[in-house]
Write a structure and sequence with these properties.
Blueprint (H helix, E strand, L loop, with lengths): L22 E6 L6 H7 L8 E15 L2 E5 L3 E5 L5 E16 L28 E3 L2 H20 L4 H27 L6 H13 L6 H7 L4 H12 L3 H19 L4 H7 L5 H12 L3 H12 L5
Antiparallel strand pairs: 1-5, 2-3, 2-4, 2-5, 4-6
Length: 302
């Protein structure tokens, strides 16, 4: 029996920081010298930075917060801080891996954009995957290759250039994402929804009142509730509870923390109430929920 973790592993950016700002780009598959990182990717984990995977070949499945997405050629995959994800490779995935934190990507003053305005990060309903046409993939591949070459060049002032290229990549991906959304008939979420979701993901453990988030957004609580409900079809309270359930699933699946310990991490002082809360929200008791997730994703099996 494998020893189970007492917390979800948190991965660091692979290489030393440049200019004291975390950023890294690598080709896939990783070099054999990075075998430990390859094995780590197969274990559910999370990190505090953003990740973009540009797949140019290979096959497998990418699980992001226990939702599965097929790895396929000419695709971009986006992972936000705090999300639990892991891979199951059928054939080695080829492409590029880019990781960075929010401080590295600083948009210029003339484009005062924030990370929560990007559709594929801090999402509520939108997919964290962008499928590319052959022409789109060629352009993205050329841009990512330029980023990779600049990163490896060790030229002076490369931090400024890398920031600029990363900014271009994000904006180009957003344009393509918008086009894809129009084609499949999906509605792009507003920046308010994603900003609210980002705040929830950062504060749900200690703050569960809609008033707190309304104050943070400089809005009236009723106005926030009406707006979020109109834009998502869900109430702010539902989204907050969803985040709590998601974190509970993460901890139940990947750690051996007791239900009471998990509840305490999210400021539930009464373990029995936390258990009832999970049963009400998921239809399963905490123990059954843990068993269901582990069996479904074959976690902790020899």
């Amino acid at each position: 029996m494998k020893k189970k973790a007492r917390d979800i592993p948190v991965r660091d950016i692979l290489l030393p920081t440049i200019g004291n700002l975390p950023f890294d780009v690598r080709t896939l598959p990783l070099d054999p010298a990075d075998y430990h990182h390859i094995k780590q990717a197969e274990v559910p984990h999370r990190h505090h930075f953003y990740e973009i995977i540009h797949v140019t070949g290979g096959e497998g499945t990418h699980y992001i917060d226990f939702e599965s997405y097929r790895f396929q050629k000419d695709s971009l995959y986006f992972i936000s801080p705090g999300q639990v994800h892991f891979h199951n490779f059928h054939f080695p995935v080829k492409g590029y891996l880019i990781v960075f934190n929010g401080d590295f990507l600083i948009f210029p003053p003339e484009n005062n954009r924030q990370m929560y305005e990007i559709s594929f990060f801090h999402r509520v309903r939108e997919s964290p995957v962008l499928r590319l046409t052959k022409d789109q993939a060629a352009k993205i591949n050329a841009l990512v290759q330029t980023i990779y070459d600049e990163y490896r060049s060790e030229q002076s002032d490369r931090v400024s250039i890398l920031r600029a290229y990363l900014h271009i990549l994000i904006v180009q991906a957003q344009r393509l994402y918008d086009v894809a959304s129009v084609k499949d008939g999906s509605v792009r979420e507003s920046s308010l929804v994603r900003r609210f979701m980002q705040l929830v993901s950062e504060n749900f453990a200690g703050e569960r009142s809609v008033q707190f988030y309304a104050n943070s957004l400089g809005m009236n609580a009723n106005h926030l509730s009406d707006t979020i409900k109109a834009l998502t079809g869900r109430s702010p309270g539902w989204i907050i509870r969803r985040q709590i359930v998601l974190e509970a699933k993460r901890l139940l699946a990947v750690t051996d923390l007791t239900v009471a310990e998990i509840g305490y991490t999210m400021n539930f002082e009464d373990p029995s109430y936390f258990g009832r809360f999970l049963k009400r929200e998921t239809g399963l008791s905490p123990s059954n929920l843990r068993q269901h997730i582990r069996e479904k994703y074959r976690l902790f099996r020899e």
